[in-house]
Amino acid sequence: MQKIKLFLASSSELENDRKEFEIFINRKNKEWVAQEVFLELVVWEDFLDAVSKTRLQEEYNQAIKGCELFVMLFFTKVGQYTEEEFYSVFNID
Q1: Complete domains list, the chain, with CATH
Q2: Which of 9, 59, 81, 93 is most open to solvent, judged by the fewest CB atoms within 10 Å of its CB?
Q3: Is the Cα torsion angle 3, 17, 76, 78 positive or negative in sign?
Q4: Would you give the DSSP letter of residue 53?
Q5: What are φ and ψ of residue 36, in 5° steps?
Q6: How far apart are alpha carbons 74 and 8 in whole angstroms?
């Protein structure tokens, strides 16, 4: 099974869009499993801030580096942390 990690970044204003994207990926995974492909969706809501020893955003940025794909959703604004995630993909400070 080929597992591909995909990080989904977006501002909090797009909560419903993130949920719809997750549903879409889960439905695609049902189709792709026969082809031995699985997309592992990584979203910031899956991280527990209670166990973070550093600034939680640093853990998101580190998770991004472990992903093969990065998707960024935005509408009226790009939040400070979403922008930071974007820059971390390209190792830009």
Answers
A1: 2-89 (3.40.50)
A2: 93
A3: negative
A4: S
A5: 60, 40
A6: 11
Instruction: Please give the single-letter amino acid code of residue 45.
Output: E
- Side by side, the strands of the sheet bearing 69-73 are 37-43, 2-10, 69-73
Give pLDDT tens digits along the chain (93 positions).
999 999 998 887 888 999 999 999 999 999 999 999 999 999 877 776 656 566 777 888 888 889 999 998 888 878 777 888 888 887 765
pTM of the model as a whole: 0.80
Directed axis angle between helix 80-89 and helix 56-65, to 10°? 30
CA distance from start to end of the chain: 35
